[in-house]
Write a structure and sequence with these properties.
Blueprint lengths: L1 E5 L2 H9 L8 E8 L3 E5 L9 H6 L8 E2 H12 L7 E7 L5 H8 L9 E11 L2 E10 L7 H16 L4 E3 L2
Helix pairs in contact: 4-5
Amino acid sequence: MKKWHIKGVKTCMEKLLISDTFDDLWLEQAQITMKNTISIDGHFQKKFYTEEELEEQNARSKRFLLWKEMKSFCFGVIKGSRTPYSMKIEFLLPEESYEELLRKSGTRELRPPDLSNCFMRFLFQEQKLYMLSGISLKLFSMDKSVEQEWDSWAEEYLKKNGIDYEEEE
């Protein structure tokens, strides 16, 4: 797990809430605190849809909403004259990317079903913005190569998207 202090808060918030920078990541959860706290669970609720709608949307195996499906709602909550007191947005790497992550890590011990999730968590509090990265496994492993590869991937994601940061200890 790594933590970065995001130095360009305004730029990063624009990339989070307006641009398509994070659109293809799953939203696990979001929490926005202003005069009240709004919590969003990013799990896809299949029971809300009919069988036909699930089939039409090819959504039978969908587990989470993509950020692009909830971004405008979150932006609508935040939009106004005051910044939120605090905010947390947690993204997950879609499972179809696990195999590539494992391949790049060079691990021979783990397979895609062994990964529970790979997350990027943005935390805004006291007018400061941080991003944390981490993974959770479904089993115990001494092999840290996947975690290191994910941390590198998360840092590279910040770099390639022009988000100014410094690593925290």
